[in-house]
Input
Amino acid sequence: MSPADFLDWCVTIGFVMVMAALAIGFVRLALGPSLADRVVALDMMTITIIVFCGIYAVYTGDASFLDVAIVLALIGFLATVALARYAERRYERDRDTGPAAATKEGADD
Amino acid sequence: MIEVLAGLLVLAGAGFTLIAAIGILRYPDLLTRMHASTKAGTLGSILVLAAMALVLGTMPVVAKTIATVLFLLLTAPIAAHMIGRAYVRTEKTPAHDTTRD
Output
């Protein structure tokens, strides 16, 4: 087996592993009991797609997928921070407006 | 030689990403799930980006890879800290006994 064949084999196995990781992360995104669980699953899926971009750049030899990975890292961080702050603010707002308002707004979710 | 090293790095990185996903699915609590996803996911992405820098090998690609790795190392703890703080403040019943301060 030549080194190039070995790299092709590793890239194929890596694609399969990353797609399995993405599917498992999607299961947790669908199940996750609380909002924070879903945010963690979404964060993990963003990192998984960054890994996919890296493996695809190895596969094609095209450096432009590195730019995709950088932008995904930026957007994933912003989305995680925004969703975490949203969860905290929503809890504080429901607590400040009282249990009656909280249950009424909770029915809308 | 570079191909073999890059292939091993790709395999290790994809394996760590898969371990992070399995940890997210199997662990009982949000804090333990974050423990799996933040550390193993970051290490997996760093290994795969190192493999890409080895294969492509030009100077701008290596510089951008180092910048991406530094950004991931900087932002992953911040994001995990914010999710953990939101969870500790909002959730009433953890899955098992945790001391509350």
Summary: Chain A touches chain B through 51 residues (CB under 8 Å). Chain A has one domain: 3-97. Residues 3-97 of chain A form a domain with the Helix Hairpins fold (CATH 1.10.287.3510).
